[in-house]
Write a structure and sequence with these properties.
alpha/beta; Rossmann fold; 9-stranded mixed sheet; 9 strands
């Protein structure tokens, strides 16, 4: 179909730009499970520190949201970070929605943390602008490889998600589970948000670098989803981003298929300062979906 051809053609235009902007050297991950404060070595952006939440329920005085780093038994996904909201450790009666956030090519699992995700989530939850939820940030160790040679995606959906639901107090329903990513991570989010629609009720694609082999499958994946189970979708990209054409074509394909979605073209390029500037936008969107999902039953 014409839209499929347009998507494939636009890939070649943006491929060189996305390769240059996305590639940075990988660091060796720490294999031992541990709980850590939000402190990282040699960040490209300022290190976020969780603000003390206020107001604080009496039963949670002295507590705050925290980030844990957990080792995972997979060469493709050797560890993940998880943000646990205020009161999680003390209130064992409450189950929480879950947001999975995937990092960009050549980066590590702490990318979202360096951009301020945990700090801003704590602040917005404390201000009651969004409801509490867990945030899981897994490490795609081989993000520099071609997607067909990277087992991260299958480990993510088939092993990590069940592990999170078994070991944390989650609401294990698609209406209470969202996936998002930036750059290559957005490519994964689009793939599994559409292909595995039974797992996710919402997907966020931030400066998406859509996988080449997925272009010709997008319309088929969309067609296979029953209308009432179509995920909520958020797409944003900077006006100077080399992936802008691909993101635009994806939005237009969704419109042609009558898939309701949010589209945002902001000022900026394919870089961390762009994503950092929109952390609150992302959190409000995910928070609206996950907060409202507390009242929705599984179909």
């Amino acid at each position: 179909m014409d839209k499929r051809q347009a998507l494939i053609f636009s890939f070649w235009i943006g491929a060189l730009f996305s390769w240059i902007s996305a590639c940075t050297p990988l660091s060796t991950p720490t294999p031992t499970p541990t709980q850590i404060p939000i402190k990282y070595a040699t960040p490209t952006l300022s290190v976020p520190i969780l603000a003390e939440p206020s107001p604080t329920p009496e039963s949670c005085i002295g507590t705050r949201g925290q980030v844990e780093k957990i080792a995972f038994d997979s060469p493709a996904l050797p560890h993940f970070y998880i943000y646990l909201p205020e009161c999680y450790a003390l209130d064992d009666e409450t189950d929480y929605p879950v947001l999975y956030l995937l990092h960009g090519q050549g980066y590590e699992a702490d990318q979202w943390l360096r951009l301020g995700m945990a700090e801003r989530a704590a602040a917005l939850m404390a201000a009651e602008e969004i409801s509490p939820f867990l945030i899981v940030m897994p490490y795609d160790k081989a993000s520099w490889r071609g997607v067909d040679d990277d087992q991260f995606g299958e480990v993510f959906v088939n092993k990590l998600i069940p592990y999170i639901d078994e070991n944390y107090r989650t609401i294990a329903k698609r209406e209470s589970r969202a996936v998002g990513g930036l750059s290559r991570g957005a490519g994964w989010a689009i793939r599994y948000g559409l292909k595995r629609w039974g797992l996710f009720g919402a997907l966020g694609a931030h400066s998406p670098a859509i996988f080449y082999r997925d272009y010709k499958k997008l319309d088929d994946w969309i067609a296979e989803i029953p209308d009432k189970y179509l995920p909520q979708i958020y797409i944003d990209i900077g006006d100077l981003d080399g992936e802008r054409g691909d993101a635009t074509n994806f939005s237009e394909l969704l419109a042609e298929e009558n898939v309701i979605h949010e589209w945002h073209l902001y000022s900026g390029a394919h870089e961390e300062s762009y994503w950092q500037a929109h952390i609150d936008d992302y959190l409000h969107w995910y928070g609206c979906f996950l907060g409202c999902s507390l009242e929705i039953e599984t179909p």
